[in-house]
Design brief:
Number of helices of chain A: 16
Shape of chain B: elongated
Shape of chain A: globular
Strand order of the largest sheet of chain B: 4-3-6-5
Structural class of chain A: alpha+beta
Strand content of chain B: 5-15%
Strand content of chain A: 15-25%
Largest sheet of chain B: 4 strands, antiparallel
Largest interface: A-B, 50 and 49 residues
Helix content of chain B: 55-70%
Radius of gyration of chain B: 37 Å
Helix content of chain A: 10-25%
Oligomer: heterodimer
Number of strands of chain A: 32
Radius of gyration of chain A: 24 Å
Structural class of chain B: alpha+beta
Distance between the termini of chain B: 66 Å
Number of helices of chain B: 14
């Protein structure tokens, strides 16, 4: 036996050596056994993906009659069709992406992973027959809602912050407990990722093993997606049962103990999302340096946009002011509330006051990432460390196992029967298809993409696929846009998005090179033209006050492009590509600053506008109200409850954020400048 | 025997007796399984709540089939003694208490269970029924032997789904880029390149800078589509190797393309994908076998449906 072990050890060591020898030419460390990719590009290529995906293993997905598991989710990401429930819970809605993704992580909720396993998998256990398990499996809509309420409130993920968390009684009635159930599903999640990961030279698709850490004390969203670099993962997902509530630093601590320090090949990120719904709790000042450095290590990127709205910035058009911003494009995809209770809309009506709209003045400043970035600069000034250096990604947060389901005209909802068909505009009007994560990587492999996220060379899109590059340096030629080797010069003379610019001297001015290609689209569905590129700068002055400015650096904000009010077809042209070399005219070498680029597309119809129109209710028509009444009458006959299409006719001028016509966009990770570094 | 059979009356008697007993045996009536009006009504009502409409004849047939299957599974489970499972005993005891079936609320559990059974709850309580049916399904599944699909079966499935196991063709190309407005220049450059021996690096400088890169590595058609749009991917896919093309349109403008190299599409061998095929075939077999087994059990009963109007 000893000899066998020695031989095995020798084999592993030689394998490791072989792997290391083979990647001498790679720009990243290869931590797994796989073939090199045929289309390796040293200057990197954009990989489009989704790192926030729920399947039937998540309690809120299952109770919405959604039955696609992790394997199905990966199939969907790769371009295959899946079947989803209709409003009646019957599996008959077919959904398929027009364009597959390059990478995906299934991130089911760690919380209740075991409970859902016990409730749904094995009828020979007593747990399977417990009332809340039966309710979870029920096909009756109202019973499902009660089950959802059970899991998500009281002792569940949204319980009070101070209350000790107890596992559901479901865990205690069988020999097989929730840890066993969790282990079973966790094993399946890993297997599904493995089955769909292309380790050949084709590199057609990358999967990541992951899960969602689902802490939401008092409905304040502190969720994070935990993404592992390769197949080496923790024994079980680390959840709020392990950390307690409102204690995500403990998550980092446990990830360090069980992954980073526990296994030579284990590496992991946690990606926060929906700070817009965190009630101001997502980004507290770190209590010590360790918390600051842990955040920087574990959370290099944040999900800026997704199904439950965007978190860049917030501007109320009715009041004419925002949350520490005057940026009028910050009305984009906002949730009126600041916490997860706003999801509780049924038959068109919000069922709880907890999720009621929150005024601009009461809205947590750090719910919005631009403010967080600014405060990071201020903290750096006072404490010497900027704990909020984060790149951006987008994702969907689909609960319909539909990664990358962001096409506005092909959106079937992201919460099973709860938001499919007419219920989407009735109950989930403020939500949307969500966004995509884009990572600049040398090849489509786990190591390359993970390393890209670590260096924050990423950007978020609101669901479309423009290709954006940003470089920041001191010596770029003003004619760089004409250079065929722009990218090579960009890397050689500075840093890409997500990087830190080293100071050069008081008389030097940083220069940024920005290129953007419009979304190429697919046959029959061309991508929308670009309207403009904007540079967003944040800085901190000598007094420690933070500031921001938004500057149009390319394109034309007044290009006259719009949409046809009846067909939603784009009217007027924009730009197929844009490039500019921009210098900051107000640069002060003594002030810390960040710069990120927002790419704004020409106007297009929001998903809700398209779905309302498909039902005969045109939000862009003066007759919208009459049309909605007629459409409601038809739905009434079919048994629908409540005002189904009323929200289609919301008047933009009476709404703080909503618009039936939107401008899709991309947000690059910032480039930071810090004096004296 | 032959001697006895010579008596025609005796032969008739024996033959008659044989026919009579055979008839009796063959026409032995199936055990009747009564479906309660309530059970059907509940299912139909549930169906209506879910769909918002009344079931048509075909819908009603499907509902009935499902009810019959569940009823038979319940009967079989009872016959197998599955009601003795702890979960059911506890449920029955708790129901007896809840429904106040006994005057003595402190009666022993066994008495409570007996009372619940006497009240017909074994067959009428939906939770108990569901447990019994599920448990029986599990039992039936255990009895199904899933034999690893033969190589021939794997081969057949593999051949029927060849498209799932094909590694696509890839091409590697360089291109000279011109904006949408510059088609005349693209035409001019294309003609020039086709009739001259301009070095590749020099040729790439004859157009505008393309921010998506002018030297593309090996890409599938899908990857090309993702980078430059469907129109470009389709057009460049048919281009010959090592020749300058006429201008090809993309989402961004015009491109004069030089295809450097290709890797032809190839089939993954069966042995590389056997595990996937085996899992797929085993799942299919299990599902079909279980369904067949349940349907076969249904034929062992005379299902008696309630007569008259369904109460909703």
């Amino acid at each position: 036996m000893r000899i066998l072990t020695l031989l095995l050890g020798l084999l592993l060591v030689t394998g490791e050596v072989f792997a290391q020898e083979s990647d001498t030419a790679l720009a990243f460390e290869r931590t797994e056994q796989r073939e090199d990719c045929a289309d390796y590009q040293p200057l990197r290529q954009p990989m489009f993906g989704d790192l926030h995906v729920h399947t039937s293993y998540s309690f809120d997905s299952y109770v919405s009659s959604q039955r696609n598991d992790p394997w199905k989710a990966y199939e969907f990401a790769k371009g295959k069709a899946i079947t989803l429930p209709n409003v009646d819970g019957e599996q008959e809605i077919i959904w398929q992406l027009r364009r597959p993704l390059d990478f995906t992580a299934v991130t089911d909720h760690a919380e209740f992973l075991g409970e859902i396993n016990l409730c749904t998998e094995d009828s020979s256990t007593l747990a399977y027959w417990m009332p809340h398990c039966m309710m979870t499996r029920s096909d009756t809509f109202i019973v499902q809602l009660l089950a959802a309420d059970y899991w998500s409130s009281s002792d569940g993920v949204a319980g009070p912050a101070g209350k000790e968390i107890e596992r559901s009684y479901v865990c205690k009635v069988s020999d097989k407990d929730c840890e066993d159930g969790s282990a079973e599903f966790w094993s399946n999640i890993q297997q599904a990722a493995e089955d769909h990961y292309d380790r050949s030279a084709e590199c057609s698709f990358t999967s990541f093993v992951g899960y969602e850490y689902t802490d939401a004390p008092e409905y304040r969203n502190l969720h994070r997606n935990v993404i592992f670099r390769n197949k080496d993962v923790t024994r079980l997902p680390i959840s709020t049962y392990d950390t307690g509530k409102r204690n995500f630093p403990k998550l980092w601590q446990l990830l360090r103990e069980q992954c980073i320090d526990g296994d030579m090949a284990c590496d992991v990120l946690s990606i926060p999302h929906n700070s817009n719904l965190s009630g101001g709790w997502m980004f507290p000042d770190p209590v010590n340096e360790k918390q600051a450095t842990d955040r920087l290590f574990f959370e290099p990127v944040i999900e800026l946009t997704q199904h439950k709205a965007s978190s860049e910035c917030r501007f109320d058009r009715l009041l004419g002011r925002g949350v520490d911003t005057e940026d009028e494009l910050c009305t984009f995809e906002q949730n009126k509330s600041d916490n997860l209770a706003s999801m509780g809309v049924l038959y068109g009506e919000l069922q709880t006051d907890r999720g009621a709209p929150v005024s601009i003045d009461e809205f947590g400043r750090r719910n919005m990432l631009r403010n967080v970035l600014k405060d990071g600069l201020a903290l750096e000034k006072s404490s010497g460390i900027n704990p909020f250096k984060m790149g951006f990604i987008g994702s969907t947060d689909t609960h319909s196992a539909a990664p990358g389901g962001t096409e506005e005209d092909n959106f079937k909802g992201h919460l099973g029967r709860r938001d499919t068909q007419y219920r989407n505009v009735q109950d989930h009007f403020e939500d949307g298809p969500g966004g995509l994560a884009v990572v600049w990587a040398e090849e489509n492999s786990r190591d390359a993409i993970f390393t890209g996220m670590r260096r924050k060379e990423t950007y978020a899109t609101s669901g479309t696929r423009p290709v954006v590059r940003v470089f920041g340096g001191w010596d770029y030629d003003s004619a760089l846009c004409e250079a065929p080797d722009l990218v090579a010069q960009g890397y050689a003379g500075g840093v890409p998005m997500g990087g830190d610019m080293l100071p050069r001297g008081a008389d030097q001015t940083p220069t940024f090179v920005v290129t953007a290609l419009k979304d190429a689209g697919v046959a029959g569905h061309p991508g929308n033209d670009l309207q403009r590129l904007q540079m967003i700068k944040g800085w901190v002055d000598a007094a420690g006050e933070t500031h921001e400015t938004v500057i149009d650096i390319a394109g034309d904000a007044n290009n006259g492009a719009t949409v046809d009010a009846n067909s939603c077809a784009p009217v007027g042209a924009g730009f197929a590509n844009l490039c500019t070399v921009w210098q900051d005219p107000d640069f002060n070498a003594e002030q810390s600053a960040f710069y990120y680029v927002r790419v704004v597309e020409n106007p297009s119809c929001r998903w809700s506008t398209l779905q309302c129109q498909a039902a005969g209710v045109n939000p862009l028509s003066d007759s919208c109200g009459v049309q909605a009444e007629a459409a409601n009458a038809l739905r009434d006959e079919e048994g629908a409850i409540g005002n189904v299409y009323g929200k289609c006719c919301l008047a933009e001028e009476e709404e703080p954020f909503y618009s039936p016509v939107q401008q899709e966009r991309a947000w690059t990770s910032p480039i930071w400048y810090q004096p004296g570094v | 025997m032959k001697k006895w059979m010579k008596h025609s009356w005796l032969a008739c008697l024996l033959l008659g007796g044989l026919v009579f007993f055979s008839w009796q045996w063959w026409s032995k009536p199936l055990p009747e399984l009564f479906i309660q009006t309530d059970a059907l009504s509940a299912q139909v009502s549930n169906w209506q709540q879910l769909t918002g409409r009344e079931p048509g004849p075909e819908d009603l047939d499907r509902i009935k089939i499902e009810i019959a299957r569940e009823a038979v599974l319940v009967e079989k489970a009872l016959a197998a003694g599955m009601q003795n499972a702890q979960v059911i005993q506890k449920r029955l005891a708790s129901l007896a208490g809840f429904l106040a079936l006994l005057d003595d609320t402190d009666a022993p559990e066994a008495t409570q269970i007996e009372a619940a059974i006497s009240a017909g709850l074994l067959r009428s309580d939906p939770l108990v029924r569901r447990y019994l049916a599920e448990a029986m399904r599990m039992r039936l599944k255990l009895d199904i032997d899933i034999v690893t699909p033969t190589i021939a079966a794997q081969q057949q499935w593999y051949e029927a789904h060849l498209q799932n196991f094909t590694l696509p063709r890839r091409i590697q190309l360089n291109h000279v880029y011109f904006s949408h407005e510059d088609k005349p220049r693209a035409l001019e450059v294309s003609k020039h390149l086709q009739t001259s021996a301009t070095p590749l690096e020099e040729a790439l400088l004859m157009g505008d800078v393309f921010y998506g890169g002018q030297k593309l590595p090996m890409k599938t058609q899908q990857q090309l589509e993702s980078a430059l749009g469907t129109e470009f991917a389709q057009a460049s896919w048919g281009l010959p190797l090592e020749q300058w093309s006429a201008p090809v349109r993309s989402a961004y403008g015009w491109h004069v393309v030089w295809v450097i190299d290709e890797i032809k599409a190839r089939q993954q061998p069966l042995e590389d994908v056997a595990a996937v095929i085996i899992r797929e075939l085993e799942e299919q077999t299990m599902k079909a076998a279980l369904q067949a087994k349940i349907d076969q059990l249904v034929t062992q009963y005379d299902i008696v449906w309630p007569v008259g109007q369904i109460n909703l």
